[in-house]
UniProtKB/TrEMBL annotation:
Protein name (record): Delta(14)-sterol reductase
Broad class of the protein's primary localization: membrane
GO BP of this protein: sterol biosynthetic process
Membrane disposition: Multi-pass membrane protein
GO CC terms of this entry: membrane
Assigned keywords, A-Z: Lipid biosynthesis, Lipid metabolism, Membrane, NADP, Oxidoreductase, Steroid biosynthesis, Steroid metabolism, Sterol biosynthesis, Sterol metabolism, Transmembrane, Transmembrane helix
Subcellular location(s) of the protein: Membrane
Record-linked InterPro entries: ERG24_DHCR-like, Sterol_reductase_CS
GO molecular function ontology, one term from the record: Delta14-sterol reductase activity
EC supergroup of this enzyme: oxidoreductase
Lineage top rank: taxon: Eukaryota
Membrane-spanning parts: 16-35, 56-81, 87-105, 146-164, 176-192, 204-224, 244-262, 282-300, 312-340
Length: 373
């Protein structure tokens, strides 16, 4: 399983072209395609960034271009599945280079705005890892929004390429179909609700350093697809799983409940922030200190959205059966990440909301899973 030919990690010129084409396409599409323009949160200096949420259109157009090009024989849909490791290492090199540039430009920036003000601890590794500026831009493109979009789309493109390989090999299984459907729905849903991303922790609180760039560009697309891919220990292409009908039904159930909680919780918070009087589950919202929502999902646990996301992650892995822990990499990683993130978020909220937060803790005692955690 871990018998990797390290030469496969050396990026060929073709994998570099694929990456360059991908980033150039996303930059151009993001700028010229129409989309709802959303104002971001108000930053500490009173400024607000604007985000053009045209990811769904950009993705649809890209898939159409790739499909037509493959039909015309201009490119092979298998390029990603066949060159997974090369693309991974090329992306890694790109992440290192781009974050070094971000470090240098951030370090020597004299901009005083909240978005571009340098936060320098003096520790090179720390500053490179966590980033120096909140919202660095390149040719007016907000890089944080750009990279997360690239990562989420990349995940779908990897999956589609693996699907094409399954068709070619005649190895399409029920497990692969289930995995593909769940992930495609999750990713499409992400782009349908792309504007919700503008109020998430990554966008509003995290600076842009290696941690975020690597997480967006490499971690999301390459490790979230472990269940399906053709790489060391990557799974469904090379492992046969016979799923029974009850197992499929149970799996769909986990996906649907997870989706309902994940999307419902994120949506409730988003609409509450826009208009604190909006009804929640048909009733006027319970509001703490005029600022925090304490009803709906946000009255059940303080991060029900994380619970929903964890159920979704589990549903992406269940199609692989339980014979190996490898396909469960994503839910296990997400569990660790979200527990850590929830703690950091609570610290930030306690500092920001003070006694209002204490009152919220009293009203809603559970962090993620009611009665358990
Ligand atoms: P949240 O969307 O939960 O945002 C947290 C912020 O929401 C807080 O800092 C606070 O910000 C505000 N807030 C918290 N409680 C309340 C409340 N009761 N009422 C009103 N506002 C509140 O966190 P994330 O940005 O971390 O996550 C967003 C989604 O992204 C989640 O569903 C998560 O699962 C998913 N995610 C997925 C990852 C993956 O790898 N798959 C990684 C990370 C996140 P403010 O100061 O603005 O009030």
């Amino acid at each position: 399983m871990l018998d990797i030919d390290l030469r496969l990690l050396l990026p060929s010129s073709q994998s570099v072209y694929v990456l360059v084409f991908y980033f150039v396409y996303l930059a151009v599409a993001g700028e010229i395609l129409p989309g709802k323009v959303i104002r971001g949160v108000v930053l500490s200096d009173g400024s607000q960034l604007r985000y053009r949420c045209n990811g769904l259109l950009a993705l649809t157009l890209l898939v159409a271009i790739l499909g037509i090009s493959a039909k015309l024989g201009v490119l092979s849909l298998l390029v990603v599945a066949d060159r997974g490791l090369e693309l991974l290492s090329a992306t890694f090199i790109f992440c290192v280079l781009v974050t070094l540039v971000l470090y240098i430009t951030g370090r020597y920036s004299s901009d005083k705005s909240s978005s571009l003000k340098p936060h320098v601890s003096g520790n090179l590794v720390h500053d490179w890892w966590f980033g120096i500026q909140l919202n660095p831009q390149f040719m007016s493109i907000d890089l944080k929004f750009f990279f997360v979009r690239a990562g989420m789309m990349g995940w779908l493109l990897i999956n589609l390429s693996i699907l094409a390989k399954c068709f070619q090999d005649g190895s399409l299984s029920r497990s692969m179909i289930l995995y593909q459907i769940f992930c495609a729905l999750y990713i499409l849903d992400y782009f349908v609700h792309e504007e919700y991303m503008t109020s998430t922790w990554d966008i509003i609180a995290e600076r842009l350093g290696f941690m975020l760039v690597f997480g967006d560009l490499l971690w999301i697309p390459f490790t979230f697809s472990i269940q399906a891919c053709n790489c060391p220990g990557w799974w469904l292409l090379y492992n046969k799983v016979e799923l029974s009908v009850p197992a499929i039904v149970d799996n769909c159930f986990v996906f649907l409940i997870g989706y309902m909680v994940f999307r419902g919780a994120n949506k409730q918070k988003h609409i509450f922030k826009k208009n604190p009087k909006t009804l929640i589950w048909g009733k006027p919202p319970v509001v703490v200190g005029g600022k925090l929502l304490a009803s709906g999902y946000w009255g059940i646990a303080r991060h029900c959205n994380y619970l929903g996301d964890l159920m979704l992650a589990l549903s992406f892995s269940l199609p692989c059966g339980i014979s190996s822990p490898v396909p469960y990499f994503y839910p296990i990683y997400l569990l660790i990440l979200l527990i850590w993130r929830e703690r950091r978020d609570e610290e930030r909220c306690a500092e920001k909301y003070k006694e209002v937060w204490t009152e919220y803790l009293r009203l809603v005692p559970y962090r993620i899973l009611p009665y358990v955690y």
